[in-house]
Design goal:
This protein has helices at residues 2-16, 20-63, 70-93. The protein is mainly alpha-helical. Keywords: Membrane, Transmembrane, Transmembrane helix.
Length: 100
């Protein structure tokens, strides 16, 4: 008897919403909206997680970079100055082809 009563309530509710097809469409639409909300939350978590992974990888890469010591910088500076002086010496030794 309880099953008949449940069915009667369902039939009455469906009639209030314009028939079984319209009632079923309302239920489907509501379920779709609820699923959409859940999916937005999941998508948000995925985007935030991917962003954290990307930034974490960049941070690790940044901190693992080889540091230049003061001695290496000084040696590089000396080499650069020597090469620049060589170029300037070569330019000053070139005689112009045409004299004015």
């Amino acid at each position: 008897m309880a099953k008949d009563w449940d069915y009667a309530n369902l039939a009455h509710t469906a009639k209030e919403f314009g028939g079984p097809e319209k009632y079923l469409q309302i239920v489907k639409d509501h379920s779709f909206q609820e699923g959409r909300k859940e999916q937005l939350i999941i998508d948000g978590v995925i985007v935030v997680g991917a962003g954290c992974l990307y930034l974490g990888a960049k941070a690790i890469k940044h901190f693992k970079k080889k540091k230049v010591t003061a001695e290496q910088a000084k040696d590089a500076e000396q080499v650069l100055v020597e090469k620049m002086n060589e170029v300037l010496d070569e330019e000053s030794n070139i005689t112009p082809e045409f004299e004015v």
